[in-house]
Amino acid sequence: MFYPRKIYKILSENIKNSKIVILTGARQVGKTTLMKMLYEQVNKKTKAIFIDMDLISNQEIGENLENFINHLIFNGYNEKLKRFYVFIDEFQRAPKLAMILKNIYDHYSNIKVFASGSSSLSIKNKIKESLAGRKFVFEIYPLDFEEFLEFKQDAQAKKYFNNIVKVKGANIALPAKLNKLLEEFLIFGGYPEVILSSNPEKKKQILKSIFDLYIEKDVMMFLGVEKVWAYKKIIQLLAVNNGQIINYNNLAQEAGVHNKTIRSYLSLLEDTYLIQILSPFFSNKQKEITKSPKIYFLDNGARNYFLNNFNVLEKRTDKGEVFENYVLQEIVKNNIKNYNIKFWRTKEKQEVDFIFEKRNILIPIEVKIKSYGKTDDHRNVLTFLTDYKQQKGYILSKNFNQIIQKHNKKIHFIPAINFVHFL
Fold it and tell me: How far is the CA of 376 from the CAs of 113, 217, 405, in angstroms?
């Protein structure tokens, strides 16, 4: 059974244009399923072929253009067709495929290509060089909470979720069913196979298989990381320090590697969609942090796996970090209004979790799992608004809903569970 995802509509809209469509993202986030859905959609109306490059028998197809075109001909392609669709899964298995796709785009105008693969630096560079101006790239992430509810097929919970924006009053108590599902999402994350399992132990096993394969194939085989023990140690250290400002020297010392290695490994972790690196926002180098980044995991299930901590929130000392990580993930997955995402911190340790930046617009967003509108909750947001002459900021909590006006600035306290529909 195929479950709907937000990105599918966007991908469908790209069926008719001539661009090569490339889906990248972490392992097991649903790229192959999306490709198969698209394949089923076009195969009903015209000729199409699905090629799985994970199969060794198919990899010789990607050795050169002649092999590739001959394979298409054997499967029904000819130059008189108005359009022939080619779907290539795990395209990174064929290193020469980027140049083949370039030649197809340039010389076979009736062939439309969709391709998917787990990202690596080498693949990204080849795509950038070979397919410049010929491609659209879509990043596929683990599910956001709204998609999670779709996969759960719980109409009542989805109704609750959609109606949060209409609820009045300062304190919003989430319905028990919705609260329970949110808790599951915060602990086990948004990988589709994990969501579709109802057994907590099975969920843990699935996460283990995903990240064992990530280390074995992406890290060791494709990225060629030699110090795998150090790479895994760094992931564990980042899981502990999720949402914190990272000190490269401290990480290097704890992992037992050089500072340059830390920077290289962090780049690989971001490129393979395990983490998100946020840069600091600043305009005053004397007063504000300018260099050290903050790092978040792009899935709470992934972070909890590397922490080896699947306890419920009430038994955790890091519940605030889990909730903050949820907000960051929802921001990234929904690409809210194409804002750049940064954080703000002064050398006096005033801090705002997230700054949305676009041209002259700056929106500060602070996350508080529990908030009742107290001054301490919005002091830093108010300081940022005043310093940067902006008019509104947001405090995201679990259930507080109110607008507070201070010094002609509006601070919106809103429930984090569905905040993407508020902004």
Answer: 54, 47, 15
